[in-house]
Design a protein that fits this description.
The chain is built from 16 helices and 15 strands. It is of the alpha/beta class and 396 residues long. The chain has two domains: 263 residues, TIM Barrel; 71 residues, Arc Repressor Mutant, subunit A, CATH 1.10.10. The strands form three sheets. The chain has a nine-stranded mixed beta sheet with strand order 7-8-6-5-4-3-2-1-9, with helices on both faces. α3 links the parallel β3 and β4. The chain is globular. The structure holds iron/sulfur cluster. The site of iron/sulfur cluster has 11 residues, from loops.
């Protein structure tokens, strides 16, 4: 029987860098995009040869901005996937898109290639906020792209949103949520802004962010209390419209939870393809180079070697302790939490035996709850999730 596998395919190009972004993405001319698509298709064909024993249940083309590639470049990549891998008939195939880079030709091409899910980066429905974030598009452009995708028959669309933006108030966030809810997407991701080092936002708001962390009043960023209020508002408005929060920052209509994301949080095997992409297969972690020149020259991870002899190929085989820790951190992100039975099935030992003390401590603090054999974060626990996760690190 074939083992399940997910594919993540990275497209590292964007029209322009957003001011808050620290992802592996960059602007690139037509020639570079074309060479990259060629190199990526080559990597896919080569790695697929080592994956005969797997069946692919989800493909996620992310970035960067995958929709900035020409239709024929995307076709080259997804055709290589279909030729090389065994793809389940019901596989979820997502393409990440940004407004301002989508056309009817591209959307029709994605459909021909079997894409059945779009993830559109909107971030805000307010043009002033979009400009402040350095986004290349307006809300109107997003609306045009969204409606076109619906007209062409895409029935599974995610909209990415961000809150706790500089200068944003609760009413602004409410307006964004309201406008997006009118469109009835099947899935909504809502993450709070993180001011990352090395970005223009860090220069502008880094000090403000530190102030906030010290409990002082920030100048531009919303106060922590406002940020918590925004999170609670999103949950309230979305749940009222029939979305379920299935992960800390992800909401879906029943049956539209993102399979690719769930696979990641449940530690399914996934293979990353493309510049800088990370993989976890058979509890072996490895990554491709982030050096574009090296990548274009074929300098990506050698999957055959990695699976045969991880240590020699620069990969890391996770030991039991690391696997258990990941199982807990990632599993607790999900609203359903961690199933004690699943822990035992995976590790041959009871959750209580390994983590009993930690679970009891956080339960006493009302940060974790237990029901029907599951352990999960409470509402209070979600707000301090990183503190809870740190409590699941095991002694060396
Ligand atoms: S579109 Fe996304 S990946 Fe590209 S620069 Fe903006 S935030 Fe980063």
């Amino acid at each position: 029987m074939r083992r399940p596998l997910e594919l993540y395919i990275h497209i590292p190009f964007c029209e322009r860098k957003c001011l808050y972004c620290d992802f592996l993405s960059m602007p690139a001319g037509a020639g570079l995009r074309s060479r990259y698509a060629e190199a990526l298709a080559g990597e896919i064909r080569r790695k697929a040869k080592s994956c005969g024993g797997y069946e692919v249940s989800a493909v996620f083309v992310g970035g960067g901005t995958p929709s900035c590639l020409e239709a024929e470049q995307m076709a080259k990549i997804l055709e290589a996937v279909r030729e090389g891998f065994f793809i389940r008939e019901d596989a979820e195939v997502t393409i990440e898109c940004n407004p301002g880079t989508l056309t009817e030709e591209k959307l029709a091409c994605y459909q021909r290639l079997g894409a059945n899910r779009l993830s559109i980066g909107l971030q805000s429905a307010k043009d002033g906020e979009l400009r402040r974030l350095g986004r290349i598009h307006t809300f109107r452009q997003f609306l045009g792209n969204y409606r076109l995708a619906r007209e062409l028959g895409f029935g599974n669309i995610n909209v990415d949103l961000m809150f706790a933006l500089p200068g944003q108030g609760i009413a602004d966030w409410e307006e964004t949520l309201g406008k997006v809810l009118e469109l009835k997407p099947e899935h909504i991701s809502a993450y709070s802004l993180i001011v990352e080092e090395g970005t223009p936002f860090y220069e502008a708001y880094g000090e403000d962010d530190r102030k906030r962390a010290r409990g002082e009043k920030p100048e531009f960023l919303p106060e922590e209390e406002t940020e918590c209020g925004m999170y609670a508002l999103a949950r309230e408005m979305l749940e009222k419209e029939g979305y379920r929060r299935y992960e800390i920052s992800n909401y879906a209509k029943p049956g539209f939870e993102c399979r690719h994301n769930i696979g990641y949080w449940r530690r399914a095997s996934y293979l990353g393809l493309g510049l800088g992409s990370a993989s976890l297969m058979e509890n072996i972690r490895f990554s491709n180079t982030s050096d574009l020149g090296a990548y274009l020259g074929g300098g990506y991870a050698d999957l055959e070697k990695v699976l045969e002899s991880p240590e020699c190929a620069g990969a890391v085989r996770l030991d039991k302790k690391e696997q258990m820790e990941e199982f807990m951190f990632l599993g607790l992100r999900m609203a359903d939490g961690v199933l004690a039975e699943a822990f035992r099935a995976e590790f041959g030992v009871g959750l209580e035996e390994v983590y009993g003390a930690a679970v009891r401590k956080f339960a006493r603090q009302k940060l974790l709850a237990q029901a029907e054999g599951r352990v999960f974060l409470t509402e209070k626990g979600v707000a301090v999730s990183n503190y809870v996760f740190a409590g699941f690190l095991l002694e060396a």
